[in-house]
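Example record

One chain of 374 residues, shown exactly as stored in the release files.
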Amino acid sequence: MDTSNILKVITSMRNDLTVSLRTLGDRTKSIVALIKAHSKDVNDEIQSMISVCEQIISQLAGNKLTEVENLIGIPLAEASNICQNWVVPKLEVDMHFISRIPKIFSMSPLRFCPFSFTKPSQPHDYLGYFTDVKEMTVLDTITEEEFTINNDIFHYSSGLLYLGGEQFLVTEGMTANRKRTYLVKCLSHEVFRLPDLNTERMHFCMGWLDGLPAVFGGSTGLHPISSVEVLEREWREHSNLNISRSEATNITVGDDTYIFGGVNYQRVDTVEVWRKKRWELLPFKMPLRLNLVGVVKLNSYEVLILGGAEGNEKYSNYVWKMNLENGMFSTCASMPINCYFPKQMISVRELTATCIIKDRIFKRPQKLDLKDYI
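Predicted structure tokens for this chain:
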């Protein structure tokens, strides 16, 4: 029996399948290359989701229900009802992989944001600053050693707030994604995507308001804004400042939150305070119009105001002690260097302040002996 025609067809089929397999391999490599090149945020999001899922599984195994609720972000009873009918989306690697993943996760009815923040007390264990695009330098204030973290989200204009432990709250800065915020763990180098800000902004200051992480004012790039947002499970709009200002400085003393100086088309010398559930513009002003000053709490009613920017490339070395109760300013000895304070990164241990400053050349740590100013 002549079987040559069968052999011919099967051989042709085998050859076609071999070519298809090679094409599939090449296509897979190109997809992987595309993901690596253009989808770092997708990779980070998937990794953070896996990490949180593993944490939830571990806490459930240990019957640590409070920790589970904190990780999920909603009450367990509500989560249980959702999970009864919730289907985990299947992730298929195809040509639409990059665009589909963020949409798949955004459709999840559970909020997997691994955060629960409490305002850290002084001294701070770590201070951070952005030394270059895509690079964040972290200073261990105990050992005085520095190390760097590299990530595409870092930019010298990114927002930065210390959350305690190894955690920092970071915004994406002067990019196309200025609403994006992240939790960065400086020791493990983990980065978790957090909810987006409601208002796109740059050159804002970060701090604490009513015990919550907050962003104050800033600029659209053309105009200063007065908007304030606080972070709970999501960012929500808070009461606006009385004066729109960018590059201001924030400090919380007791239950009151103060905003110093900044820029409203020109530098301002005004001070306002969040007190009794409203912003109050104080009747006294700083001795100079400054932005990016450093502010150090001395006690329950006094702060030091340090340095700041007076003009382009013109920095101050003035130090004033301010009485928050009566608004009196007294001039102290000048700092040894003219500088400003980019992110209000200051750790006070006993009577020594470790600060991140910017002089005419570098951003760098600087120690200040507070005994010289008290």
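Notes: Confidence is low (pLDDT under 50) at residues 87-114.
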